[in-house]
């Protein structure tokens, strides 16, 4: 009897960004001009913009490309800053086409049809409306009206990976299921008209983007996939006050503690060891670039080489932190590197962090194409 060598995997990935490009040096200069009456804040902003590891980002808001005098999101302008209601109206208008774009690309990458989708998980923490993104995507993608819709709202940067882990768990009990995960984040809508350091720090490296993936059981038509292995979700100790978003009058107020990299370096190694359960050291490190300091810390703790974190740093440099959507950009960049060097099966780990502090992690294996992929499929199955 022939062995069923199919595995649960990310079958396709799609990414999308808005049309408006934010050059980091230009944005820093315009923000510094807006802070001319608070020189200490201006100097600090200039420093953090230069050191955060970001060179460019994308935004759905063209006003963020205007001069300091006319940008409603920068402090000390002669115009009224957008209210939370204004920002949510922009979110509703701009998030839908971006999410649709990423979802269609993921389905095309997986060679899948909308009729294959049994579950859709929508993920976002930068805006809300009802009927929600899950309902809108169901209608505009042409999904079945009885598709199982699961919205993940306001869970932060780790939610994209959490959705992937949940998808794997769903398919583990129902191998015929196919789960479409769609993440969309418009982080730049929450840039604050403030000279506070916390607000300026958030303004320095968050960007807008959408990503999607299809999770299901592999078939002969699938290649360049990531098999999904064991996963783990953990609420770290002593981190509840270190990463917070509150709804304010002018968007969402973000606070990120400078202690986050230290906390991750202290608590995460034990959790990774628990996940690996005595297995070998990961060859792949698909890390959500929540900030340059997080990547620096994990490089130091695990003695990683620059190539180990290159996909994460590339995404941070070119797109910034797009909250939940970012991890699929990292996996896509990782896949491109592996494909370019015609890599065989390669195992590793994916990590993402969010408010709580929460850490989501899952073991991944890139299966590649052709004979190299077939060799490992002969050894693993659902």
TrEMBL record:
Coiled coil: none
Location of the Chalcone/stilbene synthase C-terminal domain: 240-363
One Pfam family, short name: Chal_sti_synt_N
TM region(s), chain numbering: none
Chalcone/stilbene synthase N-terminal domain mapped to chain residues: 9-217
Molecular function (Gene Ontology), one example: acyltransferase activity, transferring groups other than amino-acyl groups
Secretion signal, residue range per the UniProt entry: none
Keyword check for Transferase: yes
Source organism superkingdom: Bacteria
Keyword line: Transferase
Catalytic site: 157 (acyl-thioester intermediate)
Any single biological process term in GO: polyketide biosynthetic process
Sequence similarity: Belongs to the thiolase-like superfamily. Chalcone/stilbene synthases family.
Protein name: Stilbene synthase
